[in-house]
Amino acid sequence: MRTRVxxxxxxxxxxxxxxxxxxxxxxxxxxPVQHTVNVIAVIILGTSRAVGVAFMIGLLRVLTGTSSILAxxxxxxxxxxxxxxxxxxxxxxxxxxxxxxxxxxxxxxxxVPFSRILMGSSAGAFYFMPxxxxxxxxxxxxxxxxxxxxxxxxxxxxxxx
Length: 161
Hints:
By secondary structure, the chain is mostly helical. It has one domain: Arp2/3 complex 21 kDa subunit ARPC3 (Orthogonal Bundle). 78% of the residues lie in helices and 0% in strands.
């Protein structure tokens, strides 16, 4: 069972990294594929593994030059809130709401001091919010669409147990 979990995590990491290369929107700070992967990972693998997947995607995106250091809070905070709400309510829509709230609001506000300290940016409090909100909403809805169309979801969710 552990091999299956690690394999699923590796596949989701690969999709997130390749997706950021194929669908770049660096100037707009929008990577909807990250949020798609977050929602899918939370539903299939659970919160802690989804945060781990988000961390690895962020790390590989930074190392390949397809993202800035903001990939870490953007992906990980969204995955955490998505998992938190999905675990509490058990409905896909709460995973989406958690991802949008976590990335679009919490992460965008967290990114201001983060970017100031680590990147020397002087962006204001609402500088990141529009792009983070749009990206997380589009990506989360895409993740919901994909996960709702998987016919063997019951078999896949058994990985969490």
